[in-house]
Amino acid sequence: MQMRLTQIYPSRLPAVIKALIAAVRVIALVGLIASSVALSGCAYRTGGPDRSLPGGYTQIHIPIFKNKTQEVGIEVGFTNALVQEFERSRSARVVSPEYAEAEVEGEIQSVIYQPGGIQGGDKFPKGSVLASEYRVLLVVRVALKRKSDNAELWSGSFQGERTYVAPQVLQAGVNTVNPLYNLSARRQNIENMASDLMSEAHDRMSENF
Fold it and tell me: Which residues constitute the domain of residue 13?
């Protein structure tokens, strides 16, 4: 049976082999293209070659942010959050001032607290109200400057807003609101905003330059 097949189709075998080779090449090419697209997408998300700073600078210094608010110490969280973004993306190296080509300056311009869900009535002491939640509004400015002449290469203003539940008072006029809870919840929300806003600042600063 094999002898008969060989005798009947000898002229077609080279064509079949060529077709198989061509198909394998097409599959390999499609796989290569798909891999390249996936890698380029990963590179964009992780700050690979698709991300760079204005001017092409690769070594930057990030001093402690300026803090114009009454919230002492929050500037450290913002500074660290931005440093971590650059360390994660590798779009630029964070170095000491003497080795830096450019500097990223940040300024926390305002932090505002607004009570929400205001409640009052006969159950509360006269003239008193109870807030069931608080909103934290924050504004921070970030700028990239060239060290040689202090020229501003890029700048952006970022606003964040978060809401947290106020301490629960069981009996009006008897129990007092826990100030430690309020402070802890406020600071935790500011830290979360620092992470979110500095991620946005990094992405906008290094986007397609």
Answer: 1-46
